[in-house]
Amino acid sequence: MFSEELEKISWEQTTHDIYSKTDADVRRALAKDRLDVEDFKALISPAAEPYLEVMAQLSRKYTMERFGKTISMFIPLYITNSCTNSCIYCGFNHNNPMARTILTEEEIVNEYKAIKKLAPFENLLLVTGENPAAAGVKYIGKALDLAKPYFSNLQIEVMPLKAEEYAELVDHGLNGVICFQETYNKANYNIYHPRGMKSKFEWRLNGFDRMGQAGVHKIGMGVLIGLEEWRTDVTMMAHHLRYLQKTYWKTKYSVNFPRMRPSESGFQPNVVMTDRQLAQLTFAMRIFDHDVDISYSTREAPQVRDNMATLGVTTMSAESKTEPGGYYTYPQALEQFHVSDERTASEVDTALRKLGREPVYKDWDQCFDFRQN
Amino acid sequence: MDKLIIAGKEFSSRLFLGTGKFDSNDLMENSIIASGTEMVTVAMKRIDLDNTEDDMLRHINHSHIQLLPNTSGVRDADEAVFAAMMAREAFGTNWLKLEIHPDPRHLLPDSIETLKATEKLVKLGFVVLPYCQADPVLCKQLEEAGAATVMPLGAPIGTNKGLQTREFLKIIIEQANVPVVVDAGIGAPSHAAEAMELGASAVLVNTAIAVAGDPVAMAKAFRKSVEAGRMAYQAGLGSTSFTAQASSPLTAFLNI
After folding, report:
1. What pLDDT, in 10s, does the model give residues B8-49?
2. CA dihedral B179, B185, B188, B190 (to 10 degrees)
């Protein structure tokens, strides 16, 4: 389990190492074609800032080699905002008195139909809060079953589950799981996640091992930028990524570094990452790992998303609603956060094509999911 | 140099030696000593299994050396398992270099039979070090089957052609959770150093030492090159220069 590996890595020492990286360390990392975590640290360090243009060139080159000129498109659907956690930065915080929604089966299907009218989305991400008693594995499994006639690739972003529960959902057609650790800083984790199951750092951290054990095809990871020193946090994620790749080597991985957005929680980010730093991190991740999926959601502004779509980003959402039922049933419900890119899916599509990129909606088929047949 | 650990056992040398092709057992023994190796593989087909005083074995057996019987000569998994049982009985060790090459010309390892045999032998309690193709997927499968190391080839055995499989070895090394020992094809100390610089855990050398003009001197040269390569790997190799391309700026949008 990764918790044992993380114990061996000191947060303070890692931070110190990153800020001690030199020009020579950066140049060495740029010259390698297979980088280790030390190289990654160099590329996200302040010492690499003068090399941003070179990093962009390399990132574009590697992205072109592995992904060509395609951007994989997905759309999230929040099916409930009911949540027993009290994450202090999240709009779904249990203490937030706003009304909660758990979509009915009929409402879920209406959402699916509404999504299909936006763009030819085939890659669906189902999102929930954490309330297993009211919206647990059975509920999610049902939502997956209902999605099959409409979508060919089904992913979830829900509370961490047991390995057998992931396996159960794989039998319902689940292809991928996204889970953000939010922060790898164990000492401070509970400041942000004070109650509910999400307050259990190891349970969440080792959820990725459980996904791997259950044979989930694709695992998405993420650090929420705005909580802790981002350079240290993403370095821990780089360690985690390498560990998972070595252990669950048949799984495909994606990484996310969402920057915190305003929400009903009113929480103000502890650290702010500039666009320049986001670009540096994105290039560094691509140079570190040529074939990991790098995903930008609608948290990011159109201008950043469009430019980065040719430089390293390979997966994007569009026209996302972060409130349950937001596409059809309840367009005014409580949202998790406010999006930055408010363009319609077809506007995003047009913009990407203008940049010489092909938005790809379908790159999976259910006939490959032999376990459910 | 840091210790190499295989199946819980520590080794101070990262050079493994093969024992074929020497022109005398004395020269072989002197080469083994000069190389500093602590792991020596011997083809069980070469040994008189009924004679504990076998001459070749007598020249290999030293207290600091882990004897690694190999199954060279077997053609499939069943033969390998049978040979392994014989080797365990005869040599008193459960360590085994698994080699299955149905092809008598190039002695290339049979991936499918090697994986099958590894699964069986691990269950039978062997410490299995399989000689295999430089195939990253196969190496992960061998690791999952319980192999103590993987031993991908650098080039066809005996060819001295060096790391022809370099790109695949890099992937194998990056992905492995067990030691990676580059076996076969290492024809010169520079090849051994290159493998170690790439991050290989150890190398196995036979032909290049056995058929050298002066095998003992060559064994010493390999010893030094393996140590140098390992030290260089740990020290962090300096950069080969990267070249930035002149182009219209890609990051101008960030200046707005």
Report:
1. 999 999 999 988 888 888 888 999 999 999 999 988 877 776
2. -50
Other beta carbons within 10 angstroms of residue A370's beta carbon come to 7
The helix-helix angle for A23-31 and A37-44 (nearest 10°) equals 120
Question: B249 contacts in A (CB within 8 Å)?
Answer: 53
Residues of B near A (Cβ–Cβ under 8 Å) read 140, 170, 174-177, 236-242, 244-245, 247, 249-251, 253-254, 256
pLDDT-wise least confident of A110-114, A165-169, B101-105: B101-105
Q: Which positions in chain A have a beta carbon within 8 angstroms of at least one beta carbon in chain B?
A: 24, 27-28, 30-32, 34, 38, 52-54, 56-58, 60, 245-247, 249, 275-276, 279, 303-304, 307, 310-311
B170 catalytically annotated: no
Please provide the DSSP assignment of chain B as one string: -PPEEETTEEES--EEEE--S-S-HHHHHHHHHHHT-SEEEEEGGGS-TT-TT-HHHHHH--TT-EEEEE-TT--SHHHHHHHHHHHHHHHS--EEEE-----TTT----HHHHHHHHHHHHHTT-EEEEEE-S-HHHHHHHHHTT-S-BEEBSSSTT-----TTHHHHHHHHHH-SS-BEEES---SHHHHHHHHHHT-SEEEE-HHHHTSSSHHHHHHHHHHHHHHHHHHHHH-PPPPPP-PPP-S-SSGGGG-
What tokens appear for A216 in the block? 């989930």
Q: B71, B98 in Cβ contact below 8 A?
A: yes
In the numeric block, the tokens 């990262």 are attached to: B14
Q: What is the pLDDT of residue A285?
A: 98
Residue A226 region, left (φ>0) first, then alpha (ψ -120 to 50), else beta?
A: left
Inspect the interface and report whether the beta carbons of B251 and A28 lie closer than 8 Å: no
Cβ contact B250–A60 (<8 Å) = yes
Minimal-distance CA residue of chain A relative to B253: A307
Residue A227 is classified by DSSP as S
Question: pTM for this one?
Answer: 0.86
Nearest residue on chain A to B175, alpha-carbon basis = A246
Partners of residue A307 in chain B, C-beta under 8 Å:
253
Question: A38 is written with which tokens?
Answer: 């030390």
Sort out which chain B residues have CB atoms less than 8 A from A246's CB and list them. 175-177
* Residue tagged active-site, from B9, B21, B97, B123: B97
What domains are defined for chain A?
2-368 (3.20.20.70)
Nearest to A219 by CA among A177, A160, A257, A260: A177
- CB-based contacts of B164: which residues, under 8 Å, 6+ apart? B154, B155, B185
Sign for the CA dihedral angle at A16, A19, A23, A29 comes to: positive
